[in-house]
Amino acid sequence: MSTAVKHVIADRGDFSWSSLLRRWETLLVAVLFLVVAVGSVSLREFLDANNLADSTFNFSEKALIALAMTLLIIVREIDVSVAGILAVAAVAMGYANTLGVPAAGLAVIGIAVGAICGGLNGLLVTRFGIPSIVVTIGTMSLYRGIALVVLGDQAYTNYPDALSDWGQGYVFGLIPREFIVLLAFASLFALLLHGTTFGRRIYAIGSNPVAARFSGIAVDRYRLALFILAGTMAGVAAVLLTGRIGSTRPNIALGWELEAITMAILGGVSIAGGSGTIGGVLLAVFTLGMVTYGLGLANVPGIIMTIMIGALLLITITVPVLLRAGAGARR
Amino acid sequence: MTWRAIRLGPWLKLREVQLALILVVLVAVIGVRAPVFLSGKSIDSLFTDSSILVLMVLAQMLVIVTRGIDLSVAANLALCGMAVALLGQKFPGLPVALLIPIAMACGLALGAINGALIGFLNLPPIVVTLGSMSVFRGSIFVLSGGAWVSSHQMTPSFINFPLERLLGLTHLVWFALAAALLAGYVARHTRFGRELYAIGNHPVSARYVGVPAARRLFAVYAISGMVAGLCGYLWVARYAVAFTEIAYGFELNVIAACVIGGISIAGGVGSVLGAVLGALFLGVINNALPIVQISPFWQSAITGAVIVVAVVLNAREGQRTGKQILPLHRSASETEMPPSVLEAKA
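YS: structure for the whole thing
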């Protein structure tokens, strides 16, 4: 074993332009530019600063959930109950509001309820070894059901102004406060995932959970933490969404789990785990946001956007496989 | 006495038997609280109301057994339902006997798209069907222009068919029964069915023994789509209305019923009986709530709680493969190759 090492394994690969060009994020940047270019040429109002800034309202809360979903998918888990958690958190806030809890207290309650719900998911997954998709399909019904039981066909309204300041307010009179919150959280998540041991371990678990366990990573504790994180982010989204729309109905954020998952996967996060970046997800969020915004300006109904988003998802996962198959056939 | 104990024991360990017993107890408890639930009319409507779910669950079961999942079934159902509703509206002369095959063909075509992507391109089922779900759902709007097709735009024969009776049972129930028998035969006694289990148990081994996995996966998603198409007609005719949002979120009910029925999301495990019982379980809960005068708002919470309890119980009794890290380590060291072999390799 003392002979000269034959192969040097570098800490990171050599930089090369071709590998940069082949990165998923590069493709997303290109698509984003294309969308913005087409939009600004064909629609006069597209590049209006106020319009652009306001368009971020449409995706900021969902993107917050998508950030946490990204980490979960990287460790090979998934949480389809996030929208249900959001509903429970929002209902808890609405109920607390009727008791006269001030705005700051409401925010704490919303986020805490989210964390607790996420913790229940995490406990079920880690303690009983149940696949997370099964657990969260169950808890999705459960959480949404709790919201339905509490609210029925009623709605909570009359939230304090401090809350709507967070949901509807602007910074410098232009940029929505929600968007700033999103950017802050995105930076935090990027730092966590790409700059800390915690983040490296998340990749390690996603690449091979058994090997990660053998390397001394407390895999289940990481999983639990990430489920709690997903619940917490759903709670944060509940606070912002409640502030923005000013009312809570049991069907709040219906179907958001699928949009958050779509954002993550479009962002290049592999459903098989172990790969994906926050930057990619953020680019996917912006791309989807710009597509939605452009179609909205062009008066295309919202449901058509559903087709576009679904098609975009299918195309983005199919094209690389076809390209690879083509390259394999040529060789 | 002893022989009876010996023979009952293994039976009671069977998940299907346990589920059936729980179901019987549940029905009995509801029956005590509200005797009307046990009336023939109520039981009849229970089966009729559960039929579409049973059909969908049977198809989803075949998919889940291969380690897959089909999230697009509800959107597929709604799209095919809308297609036949519009067709029936444009051409009132079309007989139901023709509309049903059209609905099935429509579903088959949509399912084949999923199947091609998953089987031949090896893409992850959850992502593919998530995407196609959005596309199908949006396409309903494009097809209908956002309009509703309501009962007065449908012919009486179109609406009446699912609830017409043959030998005392509604056509819906006959469809479900036929599908259950067919699925039971396919899953247990045909090469196709066994190969689905093989793929789900161990995809690599399945390929080694010559299972054409790509073609089987293609077929199973196409079948899932075909059943969704059939249910599309049945749903639209049964409720006498078609619009963009019908059966929204129904895919999760279908998967929930599979989970309750003991079909493992990890693949390779599950029986037709379990699937049917899982669907009936949800059907009983849905039908019993109004009868025992519990607000329908409780339905979702109760369903969710049932799923969580069911999977926890299942995980406790089942082999906990997710937790075998240390035993695996021991067995790995036992089967370690002797040093001489390692040296020879180096």
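YS: worth flagging: Strands of chain A lie at 170-171, 175-176.
IM: good catch. Also The domain at 49-312 of chain A is CATH 1.10.3470.10 (ABC transporter involved in vitamin B12 uptake, BtuC).
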